[in-house]
Amino acid sequence: MSGDWISVRLADKRLVAEDVAALLLEPADGTALPPFAAGAHVDVELPGGLVRQYSLCNAPGDPGRYELGVLLDRQGRGGSRAVHEQLAVGQAIRIGRPRNLFPLVPAEHSVLLAGGIGITPILAMAEQLAADGAGFELHYFVRSPERAAFVDRLAAPRFGDRCRLHVGDRIPPSFDAPALFDAPRAGHHLYVCGPNAFMDAVLDGARAGGWPDDRLHSERFAAAALPAGDDRPFEIEVEGSGAIVAVAPGQSAAEALAAAGICIPLSCEQGICGTCLTTVVGGVPDHRDSYLSDAERAANDCFTPCCSRAATPRLVIQL
After folding, report:
1. Burial of 155 (0-12, 13-18, 19+ CB in 10 A)
2. Pairing assessment for the beta strands 50-55 and 163-167 based on DSSP bridges
3. Which residues form the FAD-binding FR-type domain (predicted)?
4. Closest alpha carbon to 67 in 28, 11, 1, 122
């Protein structure tokens, strides 16, 4: 292991559902991998210089391996195609250290909802809760049985009858949404991951039923669709350095800063992970991320330069 990258070997690769590949990663040098908590993900360095983020779905606490589940997105940006078509068993690759933007919090009972490939972080949560003897239930939604990944693990005795599979294009009758959403109990927390439309339906239903936002937890794999904004040019001033960087239409703030020799850590480049979150001390950002809450956006004291812009002619940032 060196720096922030870890050398691993692809020990196994197999299809666990239609268009879903499970990857088993083991340390290349035989040492233990860094520990992780349920909900964590890692950056994966792929052929062609691509870096993509994938959730860890094995049980936390196993230092000898990481397991990922990757859905093939034929219309995506190329990362999943590289995983499915180019990675081979035995191949050496590099990954980042685990990061967690979707952690479990102590709760009397946890409600876990996964849509499609959203099962990956949710499965790790179920493993952790079962190991801790904590109360939980898991609802897994797929369009067809062929698309249900990791169902063998969900049927394991350690989960008892707490995991339920729901099959259908929409939320099916097997899921009693009113019973779950309309009577939020104190000490219950809800976690959801999956396609944006699925997550929006779950979160809207929960909020309509009275769930407070501080008990709703979510993670998106893709940025939510936002109204198109005005991509007019603006300037970024780096406080205390004298540097003023022009950001052109169609150019991200992160790209403009990098071209001026000012590099900001990036990961998803879609405004969903928060890696590039930067402090704003002057001006008003034009927020186009899916990471910040409404309250954090309203404060206007930070922004995501990978995708957000400026509503004022200049932003002053602090590095």
Report:
1. exposed
2. unpaired
3. 3-105
4. 11
Q: Which residue's structure tokens are 């983020």?
A: 53
CB contact burial 167-186 (16+ within 10 A = b; e otherwise): eeeebeeebeeeebbeebee
Question: Quick count: other Cβ atoms within 10 Å of Cβ 304?
Answer: 30
52 DSSP β-pair partners: 44
Under a CB-based contact definition with an 8 Å cutoff, are residues 266 and 254 in contact?
Answer: yes
How is the beta sheet containing 5-17 ordered, strand by strand?
50-55, 41-46, 92-96, 5-17, 20-27, 66-71
CA of residue 147 relative to chain centroid, distance? 20
Contact, 249 vs 239, CB < 8 A? Answer: no
Q: Is residue 228 predicted with pLDDT exceeding 80?
A: no
pLDDT at 226: 54
Domains and CATH numbers, the chain: 5-96 (2.40.30.10), 109-220 (3.40.50.80), 234-318 (3.10.20.30)
Alpha-carbon torsion, ordered 139, 144, 146, 149, to 10 deg: -20
pLDDT tens per residue, range 35-65: 999 999 999 999 988 888 999 999 998 778 9
Nearest to 136 by CA among 155, 120, 150, 122: 122
pTM: 0.80
Report pLDDT digits (tens) over 281-312: 999 999 988 788 778 889 999 999 999 999 99
pLDDT reading at 1 higher than 50: no
Which residue is it, tokens 């099916």?
172
- Note whether 250 and 259 are within 8 A (CB): no
